[in-house]
Amino acid sequence: MAYSDKVVDHFNNPRNMGSFKKDDADVGTGMVGAPECGDVMKLQIKVQNDTIVDAKFKTFGCGSAIASSSLATEWLKGKTIEEAQKIKNTDIVQELNLPPVKIHCSVLAEDAIKAALADYQKKTDGQPTGTK
Amino acid sequence: MGHIPCSFSLMDNHQSSSHPDTRRQLQMARSMCWHCQSEVTGEYFCDRCVKVQPVSKETDYFTCLGFPRRLMLDPQKLEAKFYELSRTFHPDFYQTKSADEQTISLSNAAVLNTAYRTLRAPIQRAEYLLALETGSVKDIRTSPPADLFEEILELQDTLEEYRASDRDSDQGHRLRSTLKTEQEALERRKHEMEAQLQQLFADWDQLQDAGEATSLARVERDRILKQMRDLLSNRTYVNNIVNDLAATIA
């Protein structure tokens, strides 16, 4: 099955490729992999006042995995942490028109978002400004 | 062409299945012959009417080929069994049989081919066993190897740099030799992982042979499966980047 136009577009012009310093306090990093196919994905968010102001990714994998993470970073920008939690892999499947064999790529992207959010929250929970 | 009469292979199997020893454990997931409705105790054929029986879709590939769930299978024995069963189910030998038997022989031959392809390669065999033993591979949640991922993504950057560079320039040469060194290091790591896997395969077989149902044995079983899962995944990651490196700097 051929890739959809949107996948090809994201693959040829990936948005937000790159990385932030993962030790920065306002950065959350999600690092996930798919053991079945060997794809590796790193997705990072930069957060200010509970809002994701920037997002970056690096993916080593197939076109669909790259497109899924590229799309995810686009969607994340401007969202609050709470809104970002609601992004589902099925949204990515729909937007990119992924065939059934490539659904796991969107799952990987959702996992990466969740991992990045969790990492950021872990950092902020430890802050002296927090309730703890 | 060396013809093996159908009746010969039928008889052969018929006789061997009448030995009620270990073979009994390898029964297909069914109990009644589709033809004569008598209880089926044979492996691939009905004891009473000698009709070929369909290998159930739920039958695992080890059972299908008549091997226990072990990871250090003798490739020659595996091959011999595959050839034997290929002859047993070969559609050519069923041309004079009923349409039902022809269909069964064809589908059995197909299952057999997949089973052999899966079990022939040790890594694939282990991945298959893991899926069988854990239900789904995803059930064993492992923490992703962050260091390895960082390394892979960094290498990916260097690869991109090399792809964009002029191959004949000094920078191109330098990048190429860096990548070559990385490739060799990763290949060594891949071999180390494979050696560790070999050890786990041996551990698994030993544990299965001992056949103890103690809680200690359960702990050991889980340890082996988990370590195997980690190693198999990490090996896949490393393997992918090694292939990518090899293809780019070839």
Q: Per DSSP, what share of the residues of chain A sits in E-state strands of 2 or more residues?
A: 15-25%
Structural class of chain A: alpha+beta
Poorly predicted tracts of residues of chain B: 1-29
Mean pLDDT of chain B: 83
Output the CATH class name of the largest domain in chain B: Mainly Alpha
Could you tell me the radius of gyration of chain B in angstroms?
24 Å
Strand elements of chain B, count: 0
Task: Identify the biggest protein-protein contact and residues per side.
Answer: A-B, 12 and 20 residues
The overall number of domains of chain B is: 2
Main beta-sheet strand count, sense and barrel state of chain B: none
CATH architecture classification name of the largest domain in chain B: Orthogonal Bundle
In whole angstroms, how far apart are the ends of chain A? 52 Å
CATH class value of chain A? Alpha Beta
Q: Which percent range describes the beta-strand content of chain B?
A: under 5%
Number of spatially distinct domains of chain A: 1
Q: Total helix count of chain A?
A: 5
Can you give a write-up of this model?
- The complex is a heterodimer of chains A (132) and B (250).
- By secondary structure, chain A is of the alpha+beta class.
- Chain A is 44% helix and 21% strand.
- Chain A has helices spanning 5-12, 63-76, 81-85, 89-96, 103-125, and strands at residues 27-34, 39-48, 51-60.
- Chain A has a three-stranded antiparallel β-sheet.
- The longest helix of chain A is centred in the C-terminal third of the chain and has 23 residues, at 103-125.
- Chain A is globular and about 45 Å long.
- The mean pLDDT of chain A is 90.
- Chain B has 250 residues and is mainly alpha-helical.
- Chain B folds into two domains: 7-139, Helix Hairpins (Orthogonal Bundle), CATH 1.10.287.110; 146-249.
- Helix content of chain B is 64%, strand content 0%.
- In chain B, helix 6 runs antiparallel to helix 7.
- Chain B starts with 5 loop residues before the first helix and ends with a helix.
- The interface between A and B is medium-sized, with 12 and 20 residues.
